[in-house]
Amino acid sequence: MSQRHKVVITMRKALQQARAKKGLTQAEVAALVGIRRASYTHIERGSRNPSIQVARRIAQVLECSLDELFSEESGAPKTGEERK
Hints:
Structural class: mainly alpha
Distance between the termini: 35 Å
Shape: globular
Number of strands: 0
Strand content: under 5%
Mean pLDDT: 83
Order of helices and strands: HHHHHH
Largest sheet: none
Radius of gyration: 12 Å
Helix content: 55-70%
């Protein structure tokens, strides 16, 4: 498995877990971020990379750091409450 493939899988899991912890649908995250649902779905599937601006907004909505969501070594993301 290539390094890029591993990163995509890690990012997908982190985004899905963070969204599930917040109890949000893909459509709800997209609306809160200000992008189309299809765009968010592509980001979560790993077929599109978000701009840094969009990545920051996703992290804010999901109450996670950029590293927790988009780094090569993302683990299960911690919500804002769990980080305190």
